[in-house]
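Backbones bend. We report:
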Amino acid sequence: MRGHQETEPDRGHRIVVRLDTLLAERGMTLTELAERVGVTLANMSVLKNGHAKAIRFNTLTAICQVLDCQPGDVLDYVPEP
């Protein structure tokens, strides 16, 4: 699933958010995803850019339902080099 732009992990964690890839594969915009999930575009953008400090399970569930994917498709762990 790599190839599209992916959000690099913050200094405090090694989690990569792969919403860009999933949205591109589905031809969906971040605005459409935010509307369908029921969160603000600002909050979805914070998540997409890897700056969220947490994600609620109900939000992750809704993202997975809308994008027809698994949590591991949205979030990835990258070990230290």
In short: DSSP finds five helices and two strands in the chain.
